[in-house]
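S1.2 Input.
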Amino acid sequence: GIAGMRLFVPPAKLGLHYYPNGLRRFVERLGPGVAKRMFLLAEEFSAEELMRVGYLDWLVEPVQLRPRCTALVEALVGMAPLSLRGMKRAINQIARGNLDTAATRAAIAESYASEDLREGLAAHREKRKPVFHGR
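S1.3 Output.
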């Protein structure tokens, strides 16, 4: 199970320097303090600590992994693809500190003009599940 799960990152103990994109992802996701604990101290983190610091979004017992993944996929499949793609891109850019405002505005405009928006609004009015096509 997950009870004994542990994570540690040992490059400093081995004399290695971790690669820049990996360091960037850890700093963006966890902040510099946790990243320093992880990389400079090679501190060991329990599953609960990984949840607390934001490294994990969920803790799932192995027997529940497939149903949890299925539920996540089903939730995503029910969303509008244009909205998901544009917002995911913007969220990742914001996290990296390099939001392309013009591209984000273009994605917003694309969503406002989309068939998916009309379908989503109609489905909401009609109290039914929308059927999106990414257009």
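S1.4 Remarks. The beta strands are 6-7, 45-46.
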